[in-house]
Specification:
- The protein is an alpha+beta fold.
- It has 3 helices and 6 strands.
- The strands form 2 sheets. Strands 1-2-3-4 form a 4-stranded antiparallel β-sheet, covered by helices on one side. A two-stranded antiparallel sheet has the order 5-6.
- Strand 5 (128-131) and strand 6 (134-141) form a beta hairpin.
- The N and C termini lie far apart (33 Å).
Length: 148
Amino acid sequence: MMKIELGNICCIHETGGRGHQEDSYSPDLTHLSPDSRAFCVCDGMGGHSNGEIASRIISETMVADYPLFMDPEPSESSLLALFRNARYQLEQNEHAHEGERVMGTTMTFAGITKKGLYVAHLGDSVIYVLRPGRVTRLLYRSEDHSQT
């Protein structure tokens, strides 16, 4: 078993050139602490209505409900139940079916449990795991789904 220890928490992000941003992340930077265990970044999908709402719902639900689904005994099926719950919350939103295409979002997620680190993503956001102090040492890189 690998021990996971959080060092100083930081966030690196860049706002794109678009006038209308549809990205969202949770927890809010003011709520980060060494006890934080779930992290989610989403970006509303272009061409879909209400992407900013979709990204907010998914990022907030994944982090807020993480302890409900993953404690005390985390498992892959618990994580899938968390995803289904977040999707249900998205589909129940009053704006879910406005416009020609159902609102959607990409998602990048990481959750720390007693068993280890769970990571998941959908879309063109990529997860990188880097060794502290050695930025050139890439330990893991997820696949960009938009390239397939």
